[in-house]
Design brief:
The complex is a heterodimer of chains A (about 350) and B (about 290).
Chain A: H1 2-10, E1 19-21, H2 25-42, H3 44-47, H4 50-75, H5 84-100, H6 105-127, H7 132-152, E2 162-163, H8 166-172, H9 176-203, H10 205-215, H11 217-222, H12 227-253, E3 255-256, H13 258-261, H14 264-278, H15 284-300, H16 305-321, H17 325-334, E4 344-346
Antiparallel strand pairs in A: 1-4, 2-3
Helix pairs in contact in A: 4-9, 4-12, 4-14, 4-15, 5-6, 5-7, 5-12, 6-12, 9-10, 9-12, 14-15, 14-17, 15-17
Chain B: H1 2-31, H2 38-56, H3 60-81, H4 92-113, H5 124-127, E1 129-132, E2 135-138, H6 139-161, H7 163-173, H8 175-180, H9 185-210, H10 218-232, H11 237-257, H12 262-276
Antiparallel strand pairs in B: 1-2
Helix pairs in contact in B: 1-6, 1-9, 1-10, 1-11, 2-3, 2-4, 2-9, 2-10, 3-9, 6-7, 6-9, 7-9, 10-11, 10-12, 11-12
Classes of the chains: A mainly alpha (about 350), B mainly alpha (about 290).
């Protein structure tokens, strides 16, 4: 009710011909294009080869990790260098639930996401005691603890790891083609779901609080935003979804070991590069970053360590020259937002 | 008796961890920067020592004469050329730049030295020990501990008794006012990083003499140093030494119970202290 009266009181103040909206022509076109692209991707098992299908599946999983890390670091200001804790935890939950407790694989994946969110709560309560940059290293300690504990679990192969048993893999779907299609669809669903969830979150009240925190933590605090609670919720949601992503990653890999599951390089360094290069603090950035990252990887991966050095140099150069990443440069030059997130006044140029 | 021996070995190990932590503590104190590449810089210094020893035929301790100034120079250049461009209210850019630096450094070392584990051989010092009552103390751990204490004492003296220390403290208290008082912030930051990397060089050489190292071990060493800083309390170097000792003892006790638990025991003690005493034992500055 009070909102309505406020609007009624404000309306006469607004000059004729002006309106505030989130959508722009670019964002409408993008949304339509997104639907077309997603529909095309759903049909990918019929038009793409096996290797391409696998590569795209991997891209979607990295895309989810990047979007989630960006929500954490770019919006909530929680720079984690220990997200591999949740990726690895997801992998190990998948293996433990299916192999030790006989849970069907798909249920195990969903369940691992829930368990991941629950585990993220005490972790957050503990490491939120560390401020700023020390928080980052705290997340790393947590990931190390997860890794060392996983190496102690004898039932899952201890330090050398284990493979998903063939019955469980076969229970997923009949035949290899159907299984590969299923894992692809799962990855696609996850990526679309994560982007949609983050998009919806950012348009909600919670997202407004997050965006305010991103822009100025002190100012948003003085406006009455409960910073701890907002960050806590974000961390828990991201933790749960990262765990879910992790279980899908290791469903695709079929083999798990502490080193692979909790690899700081694979699940944090690459993800950070994706977000930094694409543009931190935007929804478009991680998407652009994933495309660039995979394009670089497919062309330069033969270089091995030099490829990683190039990535590091590129990330530093972007942080120094264009802290908002490549997407930041694009939107600065053109003023285009592909996702209808920020509000603009229309009709000023008339 | 066994347990007392474990305790003593843990305390001596703590000296090494305090060395890991001192540089980290120093730059955080002066410019609120957390250097994620700290561990990799330490390993880099160890490799620099390795090359120095191999080419000049000197012992690791003598190589310090070359490695320390070299690392200090690298530190000053790194701060002026790269890090100063991203210093500011927002902690994200410097954090991510040092993260990128860590990846670059690790892979450059991998490229130059391969993944084979290396060790700085000290010949005599490797095995020499001294009997104190019923305990056998290795000369190297004792020397490491003594160097850690001396270094922290020297840093404290520098901080509170010299013009440079005054500049560091002033910048730490308020960067803008320090600048108004005629201090060049960019230069002070450069000096702080130079000093921090000089300390890191010492830490790296002792790391290399104590255990085998390869390009990938920097991360865990950074974590040990970080844990010592947090346990001891931010901004207090003697606290950092105490934190290092506590961590060393926790690890020694853990490995006594089960060799696989050494590192895990240290992390668990750190997390427990974070839960009950989030500011550490002797905090001096607010994070």
């Amino acid at each position: 009710m009070s909102d309505m009266t406020k609007h009624a009181a404000l309306r006469p103040m607004r000059p004729a011909g002006l309106s505030v909206s989130r959508a722009s022509r670019a964002s409408t076109i993008t949304m339509v294009l997104c639907v077309v692209i997603v529909l095309g991707l759903v049909a990918a098992p019929w038009w793409a080869g096996r290797a391409d299908l696998r590569l795209m599946g991997e891209m979607f999983l990295y895309l989810s990790l990047a979007v989630l890390w960006n929500l954490l670091a770019g919006y909530a200001g929680l720079v984690s260098v220990g997200q591999q804790a949740f990726v690895g935890f997801g992998g190990y939950m998948l293996f433990a639930l299916t192999m030790l407790w006989g849970v069907p694989p798909l249920a195990a994946i969903a369940l691992s996401g829930v368990i991941g969110a629950v585990v993220a709560m005490p972790v957050a309560a503990l490491i939120f005691r560390l401020r700023g940059a020390y928080f980052a290293i705290g997340t790393w300690v947590v990931a190390e603890v997860f890794r060392l504990v996983a190496a102690q679990i004898g039932a899952l192969g201890g330090g050398s790891g284990t493979s998903l048993s063939p019955q469980i893999v076969k229970a997923l779907a009949d035949g290899r083609a159907a299984r590969e299609a299923l894992t692809f669809w799962l990855a696609l669903t996850l990526a679309v779901g994560v982007i949609a969830a983050v998009f919806w979150l950012l348009r909600s009240r919670h997202g407004l609080a997050l965006t305010a925190i991103r822009d100025n933590e002190l100012a948003s605090k003085s406006l009455g935003i409960d910073i701890w609670r907002t960050k806590f919720l974000t961390y828990v949601v991201v933790g749960g979804l990262t765990t879910l992503t992790g279980s899908l990653i290791f469903l695709q890999k079929i083999r798990i070991s502490p080193e692979a599951a909790f690899s700081a390089n694979d699940w944090t360094a690459f993800v950070i590069f994706i977000v930094v290069i694409g543009g931190i603090g935007t929804l478009e950035g991680p998407i652009l970053g994933t495309l660039i990252f995979f394009a670089l990887r497919e062309t330069l991966a033969d270089l091995g360590t030099i490829y990683l050095i190039i990535l590091g140099v590129l990330a530093i150069a972007i942080m120094v020259r264009a802290p908002r990443g490549l997407w930041g440069l694009v939107s600065e030059k053109t003023g285009v937002d592909l996702f209808p997130l920020s509000r603009r006044v229309r009709g000023l140029d008339r | 008796m066994d347990w007392i021996n474990v305790l003593i070995q843990g305390i001596l190990l703590g000296g090494l961890y305090a060395l890991f932590a001192a540089g980290l503590s120093l730059i955080f104190g002066v410019m609120r920067l957390v250097n994620i590449a700290h561990g990799d810089l330490m390993v880099g210094a160890a490799y620099l020592g390795l090359t120095t020893c191999a080419t000049l035929g000197v012992t690791p301790l003598v190589s310090l004469l070359l490695v320390v100034p070299a690392m200090a120079g690298i530190g000053y250049a790194l701060q002026r050329v790269v890090l100063n461009r991203v210093m500011g209210e927002d902690i994200l850019p410097p954090l991510l730049v040092t993260f990128g630096l860590s990846v670059i450094l690790q892979n450059t070392l991998l490229l130059g030295y391969s993944a084979d584990p290396q060790k700085l051989s000290t010949k005599v010092l490797d095995t020499a020990s001294v009997a104190v009552g019923p305990f056998n103390l290795g000369w190297l751990p004792v020397l490491t501990f003594a160097v850690a204490v001396a270094l922290i004492w020297a840093l404290q003296w520098m901080f509170y008794r010299t013009a440079l220390g005054r500049a560091f403290r002033a910048t730490s208290d308020n960067q803008d006012i320090a600048q108004l008082m005629g201090l060049n912030r960019a230069h002070v930051f450069g000096l702080a990083m130079a000093l921090a990397l000089a300390v890191t060089a010492v830490a790296g050489i002792f790391l290399g003499m104590r255990t085998a190292f390869d390009p990938s071990v920097g991360g865990t060493r950074l974590i040990f140093g970080f844990e010592a800083v947090i346990i001891g309390g931010l901004g207090n170097l003697w606290g950092t030494l105490a934190g290092g000792i506590l961590l060393g003892v926790a690890q020694a006790v853990g490995s006594k119970i089960d060799p696989g638990w050494q590192v895990l025991a240290g992390h668990v003690v750190f997390l427990a202290i974070l839960a009950v005493r989030p500011k550490g034992f002797f905090p001096r500055i607010e994070a």
